[in-house]
Amino acid sequence: MAIMTATTHAPLVGIIMGSQSDWSTMEHAANTLRDLGVSFEAEVVSAHRTPDKLFSYAEAAAGRGIQVIIAGAGGAAHLPGMCAAKTVLPVLGVPVQSQALNGLDSLLSIVQMPGGVPVGTMAIGKAGAINAALLATQILALHDAKLLTAIEAFRERQTDTVLANPIPGVK
Ligand code: RP5
């Protein structure tokens, strides 16, 4: 079942994750896309528990109009790599912070793809989820002036916030 967070327009970005337990990380990607005005869908698709669903999702994504896939997983995180193996859409992998090894297992599982099947690997956890959404938007913005403006405005706000609060702990 899809997590009920998808935007109403035809989704350009597909967010998938290995488990419901990944949502507390991956919702940061969803929130960032929503703030930037990017249409997306979000769904649990597990490489290990629902492998057939993963194959059908990855095979059908481009035909449904998805342009970038963000895949988050933790532990033995095969989801981004297997998804990338079944589609030529860009796949951005988000290593979810695992309890046992703090996400180092997730990071190494996702980043060490064999030559020939790339996954754009983000940072572990929340920062990675946010950056996956920003990078997906930047990819879409190559052919979408509205999204380019949204990214430029985001950067400007970010810079202004830092410059307006130069002393740590004082707002
Ligand atoms: C991975 O196993 C998921 O991506 C998740 O990060 C991890 C643990 O899943 P649960 O046992 O919490 O469902 O496949």
From TrEMBL:
Residues 11-162 form the PurE domain. Its EC number is 5.4.99.18. It is an enzyme of class 5 (isomerase). The keyword RNA-binding does not apply. Pfam families: AIRC (PF00731). The keyword Isomerase applies. Pathway: Purine metabolism; IMP biosynthesis via de novo pathway; 5-amino-1-(5-phospho-D-ribosyl)imidazole-4-carboxylate from 5-amino-1-(5-phospho-D-ribosyl)imidazole (N5-CAIR route): step 2/2. Substrate binds at S19, D22, R49. It catalyses: 5-carboxyamino-1-(5-phospho-D-ribosyl)imidazole + H(+) = 5-amino-1-(5-phospho-D-ribosyl)imidazole-4-carboxylate. Signal peptide: none annotated. GO terms for molecular function: 5-(carboxyamino)imidazole ribonucleotide mutase activity; phosphoribosylaminoimidazole carboxylase activity. Keywords: Isomerase, Lyase, Purine biosynthesis. It comes from the Bacteria. Catalyzes the conversion of N5-carboxyaminoimidazole ribonucleotide (N5-CAIR) to 4-carboxy-5-aminoimidazole ribonucleotide (CAIR). PANTHER family: PHOSPHORIBOSYLAMINOIMIDAZOLE CARBOXYLASE (PTHR23046:SF2), PHOSPHORIBOSYLAMINOIMIDAZOLE CARBOXYLASE CATALYTIC SUBUNIT (PTHR23046). Belongs to the AIR carboxylase family. Class I subfamily. This is N5-carboxyaminoimidazole ribonucleotide mutase. It comes from Paraperlucidibaca wandonensis. The lineage of its organism: Bacteria, Pseudomonadati, Pseudomonadota, Gammaproteobacteria, Moraxellales. The gene is purE.
